[in-house]
Structures are given as structure tokens and as C-alpha cells.
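Sample 1 of the test manifest.
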Amino acid sequence: MQRTRIRGGVRAALPLALAPLLFGASFGFLAVEAGLGAVGAVVMSATTFAGSAQFAAASILESGGGAAAAILAAVLLNARYVPLSIAVAPIFPGSRRRRFLEAQLIVDESWALSGRSGRFDHGILIGAGLLLYVTWVGGTVLGTVAGDLLDPDAIGLDAAFAGLFLALLAPYLRSRRALATALVAAAITLALLPVAPAGLPIVAAGLASLIGLRR
Amino acid sequence: MIAVVGALSMLFKASGPVLLGRHQLPPRIAGLVEVLAPAMLAALVVTQAVGGDRELVLDERLAGVAAGVVAVALRAPLIVVMAVAAGVAALVRLI
């Protein structure tokens, strides 16, 4: 049962797998340019496992910024994992140690796919997370040796992600409370994007969920 | 830098499952967590569609996202929505 769920997660993430491979390769390439070294790039992909934070940190270093600025940017970008992780917390079974390890497979895409049916599904999250993890780390390895494989933007992959999150958001919007929350969250993000450091707008958008507080 | 970012990211990701575990949340808070998903998804859509380096960037992605909205409205499957968004953005970028 659990095994078929995990397989279902792998299958759900298959259409997305090209993206982490290509973006992983771009990251590997950029990280080597930034002086992190091939091993450093791969270690970072394996431990941080979050594209936007890794890109931000590597490009800050590459453009001559300091380690502190790189860390701050990555931390701000990854702070969104606190609300994401709280939202899926109840689906993780087992010991604290197992929950800690499995939670590392939470990444925007696996998290979003696992909630596709309206309730979060542990097997889907694990399956999708595993596939994305392998392709992300594998892509990074490729990028450190072979350089950029192909420009992801040229094939529109940047727009594909907006499409992915949009498709996963749509089923929630049937509830009026969720619709209102989504609109407020979108407005907060739009308002903060031009003024706040990267990452902060998404975290602040989480405040829109206060609409859900029951009296 | 790599070690610090890696360690903090791991803690962020594990915060929910490790600290909350399977505790049932009080109903007031449960309502909040219920709408956390649409809130975060909406923020991700906006960031992916128009996000830039401390600015709003209106570029080919928007055409892709608009096509994606149409695909979602037509109840297209996930993979089709993504392909349509990517294809339209790539096409507009070409011309």
C-alpha cells in the first residue's frame, strides 16, 4: 500500500524531472564558477536541496558578495519551509529521527504534489521527493563536469513552474475561505516583491492564512 | 557557508514533522493550517510568474502563465498545464 503510494509519487513527479536535472546542472556550473568547488556544489545540493536558495547563495558569492550575505539570502529563501513543513506535519509517521530524515524530501514541488487530492499524502511526498532529490543532485554532478546542459529558460521551464503551482492551487479555490486567503497571499507577495529581499515575500504571504483562524 | 545553509535548511524542513509530530492541532489553529497550502501556493505562483531581483519582471513568463490559466480553466491535466505554460513562454521568447 505504502509502496504503491510512493511509486505514485515518483510517477506524479516524472513530468517535472527534466527541470531539476537542467536547473541542477546550471547550479553545478554556477557553483564551480563561484568558487565552491565541484564537491562543495554537490554537498550543497545534497544537504540544502532547495534550488532558489542555492542559486541565490552561489550567485552572491560569484558576484563578489561575502559569505554572510550568501547565508542570509539562502536562509530568507528557505524560511518558507517552516510554514510548508507545519502544513504537512501530521502525515509523517514513525520516530523523531525518521521524521527528521523524511522531512528533508520536502521541497516546493513534492510538497505541492502531495497535496493534490486535497489532503496531504505521505507516500506521494516521499516518492516525488526521492525522484526530485536524485535528479537535482545528479544534475548538479553533471553541471560540475559538463557545464550548463541547456538553458532552462529557452524551453520555457521558468514559466512551467508558475503553471505547476497554479494547477495545484486551482482545486483549493472552490472554498471561499481558501480563495480569499490565496488572493490576500498573492497581494502580499506582489506588494513585497519589489521592496523586500528575496524570499521574504513568500514567508510574509503565509500570514494570509490568519484568515483561517476559527473564532 | 555550505555547512551553515545546509544545516539551517534541514532544520527548517524538519520543523513541522519533528516538533509538532502527529499531535492534533487545536481546531482554531487547524483552520489556519488548512488555508496555509493555498496561501503558499498563491505566493509561489506570483513569485514564479513575475518575481525578479527585488523587482517585478514582466516578461515572456506572463504569456506562459496566461496560457496556463486557460489550460487550468479547461481542466487540463497537470502535465498539460505545465507543457502549455512552458511552450507558450518559449515560443513568445523566440519571436
